[in-house]
Structure formats: structure tokens, C-alpha cells
Specification:
By secondary structure, the chain is an alpha/beta fold. It has helices at about 25-35, 55-60, 75, 85-95, and strands at about 10-15, 45-50, 105. The chain has a 3-stranded parallel beta sheet with strand order 2-1-3. The structure holds zinc ion (ZN). Zinc ion binds near residues 19, 20 and 69. This is Aspartoacylase.
Length: about 110
């Protein structure tokens, strides 16, 4: 049986909006938190917001080359042209050996 309980305490959280570029609530919130992250900041947690698919957001379309919603894990994202994987890894690269987030939320 697979468990949903984390074995280690969660210290890094990635928040995504704009996985589908025509769903504007997430885009609005992530854009807001990128400008001012005080609402998502929590002591002891490293929380980073990301616009998941900036090209799709710019065109206000669900996706362009790849529906990221169908492949959303760091391993699968390597194969998507619009993958946010490089931005995710770069955001944490300078900190703690570049370990990716332990929790992703959209
Ligand atoms: Zn969606």
C-alpha cells in the first residue's frame, strides 16, 4: 500500500499557477505572491511560487506543446518544451544543494 504521509518533514513547497494558461485564478495568485510573498511565507518553510507555463499564460490558452497537468512531476517534466522544471531547479539551486521541493501545490 502506498502512503501519502511524508517520511521527512516538508521544508520546501512549490506553489504553481498557470499550469493551464487560460485558468486565470492561479495566474493571478502566483503573480501576486511573486510581487509580495508575505501571504505564503511561513517560518521554517521555503515557499516559492511559479507561473507553470508562461507561454500558455501569455496566449491565454490551455497549453501550447504539452499539457503539463498530465505530466506533472520533475522526472516527466524534462520531456515537455514548456516545462517549468529548469526554473524550479534553478530557484533552489543556490540553496541546500539544489534539492527540489518536497511538496508541490497548484
Ligand atoms: Zn487546469
Amino acid at each position: 500500500m502506498t502512503s501519502c504521509v511524508a517520511k521527512e518533514p516538508i521544508k520546501k513547497i512549490a506553489i504553481f499557477g498557470g499550469t493551464h494558461g487560460n485558468e486565470l485564478t492561479g495566474v493571478f495568485l502566483v503573480t501576486h505572491w511573486l510581487r509580495n510573498g508575505t501571504e505564503v511565507h511561513r517560518a521554517g518553510l521555503d515557499v516559492k511560487p511559479f507561473i507553470t507555463n508562461p507561454r500558455a499564460v501569455e496566449k491565454c490558452t490551455r497549453y501550447i506543446d504539452c499539457d503539463l497537468n498530465r505530466v506533472f512531476d520533475l522526472e516527466n517534466l524534462r520531456f515537455c518544451p514548456d516545462s517549468p522544471q529548469p526554473a524550479i531547479l534553478a530557484a533552489w539551486e543556490a540553496e541546500a544543494g539544489g534539492n527540489p521541493p518536497s511538496l508541490a501545490a497548484e
